[in-house]
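protien #1 (seq + structre)
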Amino acid sequence: MDVTAPSHPYYPPTASIPTYVANDASVLRLLVTFGLMVGVVLGLSYWQTIQSPLRLRPIDRFAVMWFALCGFLHVGFEGYYVYNRTSIPQLQTVFGQLWKEYTLSDSRYLTSDAFTICVETITALVWGPLSWLTYFAILTNSPYRHINQVVVCTAHLYGVALYYGTNLGDFRATGVSYSRPEAQYYWVYYVGLNAPWAVVPLALVCSEQGRRRGRKEKERRHVANGVPVVFLHDSYKQTARAFRALQAQEAERKTQ
């Protein structure tokens, strides 16, 4: 019996991707190009931390670079997918070919999967701009930087959990895998390239919680060590002021 070979290299082989056109650029060329883009974003953001008049901690410098990169990837790379999602299989642009290479690890991006479209749209329209706002907030020491950082990090953790969870849930329920079986695609592309959005946000949230605990402890020590002295000093001044007022009233009565 003749079996028709799939017209694309994605999994499952039965996935419908009728407009697929193979990439004309090598994987090495695509990865080098993407790496240069990421390097430029990280380099420029690090340069801005050096030029900042603020005394940024190492974790703050790292956060600036991280949120600058998140903004670029969410708005630029993922926004490109959202806008061109129906034509990605046939595109030969740099981003189009990068998406076709990445989706060897998750074919949902090429099959109009509802979850994938929804989560990427929210990421591009909300979390991308908010990442850039957090980036600027850290550089300018805005009071909103801490709440922005916690919100974006929480969103990243939630998004990664859903992304991994829905894929695993589908596999356990139906036995369907969206990734090719080679380790390069599942462990490097699918697991490895998304893992930073679980590890880094968790580290930044823990750092933020540590900063808040340190500030509260400092305030507690300040209250324990300084307030009694201030309180006694203020009490002395208020008592002296009251005695002077009484003396003035007594002197006024004597003159009447």
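ok now protien #2
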Amino acid sequence: MSIVIEHLNYVYMQGGPYETKALDDVSLTIHDGEFVGLIGHTGSGKSTLVQHLNGLILPTSGQITVDGMDLADKNTDKRAIRRRVGLVFQYPENQLFEETVAKDIAFGPKNLGLDEAEIDRRVRTAMRRVALDYDKLSQRSVFELSGGQMRRVAIAGVLAMEPQTLVLDEPCAGLDPKGREEILGLISDLHRESGATIVMVSHSMDDVAAMAERVIVMNHGKVAMDGAPREVFSRGEELRAIGLDVPQAVELAQKLREKGFDVPEGIYKIEEVRAAVEAIVGKGGRHA
């Protein structure tokens, strides 16, 4: 299943005194099974873009098709779109409202008109995927959980819809280091085990470098870069010019090269820096 975006434009408050063009002629295709990292400074259009992917908002002009279905077509079943593309908002735990964990996760499947046995299966499966113990937690109030657990319940609620594509807007925002590590781990496991397409919006270059197979950079509503992480993160000066950082591994590799050490170009993961340093040490610390 592919998501195809063609010449997408979106204008907030069109015709009013505060009219703002949030997306400007965006064209790209998200392919089945990809892990895409979407980055950009605040106001770059990345959150607006991902809200288009399941029809939450519709284009001012241009076209988006999901599995061949045109989101702007009045005859397109929006429920069918949202079964295919699940969207996890930033701070999704703020949308939890049911009495228990199980009821909250079951909310979406219940609205699909599924029978109780299928709803129960989906709740149990979704909880397992986000490492929440069904027997211990399903009947607990969501408000008795830790912040990281609440975040996982919110993600489970989207997974229970069994989407083919999962879109996450800053999934680690506001979490402590332990919670952040847990969320990133479950996203990585989900992609590896199910082959689901993942689109992850993040301000963390290190998270994107560690997880994404493709990086899309947004700037002023346009796609500024789109390519493999090694290619995108090698353009450090361009990224800094639009207000973005590069992964720590890129910075460290550059500093080592400036000191005269023989560190290959294109490094963007910390394990690659480690391997380069070990190679230097193995050569007796010789410079290039």
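The chain has a mean pLDDT of 94.
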